[in-house]
């Protein structure tokens, strides 16, 4: 079973949608899927894996701009940016799938279901110390990945990428004053870089925005002074 977002109700992609398919531990197909359908046939393309579920789990699939993410019991389970996909569904209603493995439909019973606009994020535009352990990095629904990036996690007071080399993210939920700012505190690292971003366009599938990139390395470029 699982929640559905951006169901296409007309056009050449009738019934296409994004589906978070959830099953028990040991079950197959625990993924976020892009269902590409035309009214008579369909294909199911897995986009990103999700964790298994148990009775009583509460799942919420949220679509904001090009980004989709799933919450399980209020904690972010996965996040996916559709920006690199050839087929992107940008609008459409929500729904729910129940898929019993037998003729007994109660074997996939849904206790309750509701839908509506995505909840207002609790994130603020104050700075973060990255304390604690959080995977995926959420912090009040402030963080989302650039296209093709897996996300962030917290470890030892630092924010690091979930995938090697994927360590850049943006913030979307802030409601800043006209003089927007972004702040970063450098950690004790010997090499690598990063920096604050402003003016992120979350509705653009490309990687847009302004970045102040700071780099620390043990290797000096020939002819440089620092």
Structure, explained:
- With 226 residues, this protein is mainly beta.
- It is 0% helix and 31% strand.
- It contains no helices and 16 strands.
- The chain is globular and about 60 Å long.
- The N and C termini lie far apart (57 Å).
Count of helical stretches: 0
Q: For the CA atoms, what is the radius of gyration?
A: 20 Å
**Approximate strand percentage:** 25-35%
Q: What is the mean predicted local confidence, pLDDT?
A: 78
Widest sheet: strand ordering: 4-3-2-1-8
Number of strands: 16
* Secondary-structure element order, N to C: EEEEEEEEEEEEEEEE
Distance between the termini: 57 Å
- Describe the biggest sheet? 5 strands, antiparallel
Assign a percent range to the helix content: under 10%
Backbone shape:
globular
- The assigned structural class equals mainly beta
Outline the low-pLDDT stretches: none
Structure, briefly:
By secondary structure, the chain is mainly beta. It has no helices and 16 strands. The strands form 6 sheets. Strands 4-3-2-1-8 form a 5-stranded antiparallel beta sheet, with no helix packed on it.
In terms of topology, how is this protein built?
Blueprint: E1 2-5, E2 17-21, E3 31-37, E4 42-49, E5 59-64, E6 67-72, E7 75-81, E8 95-97, E9 143-145, E10 152-155, E11 158-161, E12 169-171, E13 192-194, E14 197-198, E15 210-211, E16 214-216
Antiparallel strand pairs: 1-2, 1-8, 2-3, 3-4, 5-6, 6-7, 9-12, 10-11, 13-16, 14-15
């Amino acid at each position: 079973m699982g929640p559905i977002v951006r169901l296409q109700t007309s056009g050449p992609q009738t019934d296409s949608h994004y589906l978070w398919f959830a099953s028990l531990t040991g079950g197959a197909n625990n993924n976020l899927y892009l269902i590409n359908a035309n009214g008579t046939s369909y294909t199911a393309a897995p986009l990103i894996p999700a964790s298994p579920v148990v009775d009583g789990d509460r799942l919420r699939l949220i679509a904001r701009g090009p980004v989709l993410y799933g919450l399980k019991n209020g904690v972010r389970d996965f996040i996916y940016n559709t920006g690199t996909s050839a087929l992107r569904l940008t609008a459409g209603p929500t729904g729910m799938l129940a898929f019993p493995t037998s003729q007994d439909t109660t074997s996939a019973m849904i206790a309750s279901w509701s839908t509506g606009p995505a909840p207002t994020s609790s994130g603020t535009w104050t700075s973060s110390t990255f304390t604690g352990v959080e995977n995926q990095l959420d912090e009040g629904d402030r963080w989302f990945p650039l296209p093709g990036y897996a996300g962030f996690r917290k470890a030892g007071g630092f924010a690091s990428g979930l995938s090697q080399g994927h360590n850049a993210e943006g913030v979307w939920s802030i409601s800043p004053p006209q003089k927007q700012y972004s702040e970063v505190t450098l950690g004790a690292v010997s090499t690598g870089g990063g920096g604050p971003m402003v003016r992120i366009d979350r509705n653009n599938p490309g990687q847009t925005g302004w970045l102040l990139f700071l780099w620390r390395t043990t290797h000096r470029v020939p002819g440089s002074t620092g």
